[in-house]
Amino acid sequence: MTTIDWDAAADSFDEEPDHGLLDPAVRSAWAQRMETWLPTTRSEVLDLGCGTGSLALLVAGQGHRVTAVDRSTRMVEQARAKLAGTGSEVLTGDAGLPPVGNRRFDVILARHVVWLMPDPDAVLRHWFSLLRPGGRLVLIEGVWNGVGLSAGRLAALLGRHTESVHHEPLAGDARLWGKEVHDERYALVARLEPPRRHREVVDVHLILRRGPDVLLARRAGTGYADGLLHAPSGHAEDGEDVREAVIRETAEEIGVVLDPDELRTALVMQHKGPGGNPRMGWFFEARYDPERPPRNAEPDKCSELAWFPLDALPDDMVAYCRAGLDGYRTGERFLIHWHEDGDPVAYAPEAAGRAVSLPATAAPAGGVHHIELWVPDLAEAESDWGWLLGELGHVPYQRWARGRSWRRGDSYVVVEQSPDLTGDTHDRLRPGLNHLAFHVRDRETLAALVRRAPGHGWRPLHPGGPAGTGGRGHHAAYLENAAGYEVELVAP
Prior knowledge:
By secondary structure, this protein is an alpha/beta fold. About 25% of the residues lie in helices and about 30% in strands. It contains twelve helices and 25 strands. The strands form four sheets. Strands 9, 10, 11, 12, 13, 14, 15, 16 and 17 form a nine-stranded mixed β-sheet that branches. α1 (about 5-15) runs parallel beside α5.
């Protein structure tokens, strides 16, 4: 609190250009600012710490009804003289607790007042209580010769009461002060608005699959996580749903234009970076199309694109993206990844894991949990089964010395070279497993799989092309590998 004898200062107060507004250029500059800060319709304005009433006179001249308050009787006398005939009221009282009873106002105006208050937070709380719904505080403050109240400090105090605070620097406008100034001077306009509901940015990520591999981009020149790998990603814009957003971001970042039917929802993750705000992330899966190869369409934000095995991802990744891809690989559908403020943005293998899995609705009782096939040659099985299952949407799941597995949803397929195996081929004509049947998206995809199958260890059982039906309204093809296993691929 600064002790100033305002009665003694009253007679010379207007000698400062920005106090008396005697210079037409200074007065015009303040009038222009007031027009932008005050409502365009006639309003009830409470001018607190009004001094000699110079700003109150401007406000009244713009058609508003003014109530002015100052604790100095000499200041009040001069303000009443200036405002005579304008319909304004000038009261003697404390600006922190103005003597206005139960009256409410559209605007509370205070210039160089808050910095003098011993408890500015309490004063602001009271002032907000004097506003009508939708009303505003117009506060003009600054820091002069090391004293005063900075814009950052005052904005923080206002932020306890409202989310709507507009900051307008004033030091650069010499017309307001009648001279050049080099200290901090500003206006803050704070509106009384209902608290907003909690909002989070929604971001989208593309898991582009090429068999067992995924595409990652190395960030560069963005200011966030530069040098680290991340899936192609971005955030949904106003009026845009998440599917539209990932299609747009994919085209912008890697030059691939996806059809909505190509997308599959892979994972939803709520995540928060260290020191950041929460976001809701949607991960989508799409298949690589050799006729539409990805390219680096944003070289100013990305230094490289590269494919990486999903079951052997690199460590130099953004941590939450790595957690998302790890969760996707293991069949998770919903995750929370909440950084502590001291955590690194980069994935750190030795650090505490922040991913928390949220269980989805349990699979119906009786559904297939997994299928296990004993194979005579694990390396060969990993090659042919890995290719086929990858093409069908399974992701690498488990890996151990004698086995591998691939997961899709709640079930998975295992191939294992067991030491208890008694033969070196599978005979599908003997009692036991005859074949496995898998859904395929459409007949075009089915035909493409059959064409490419021989290059990956599978021969069509009907060399002329897909044959037979997989049930009414469906079409099927049959493949067999060198170990004698048969699969049926069924397309609508």
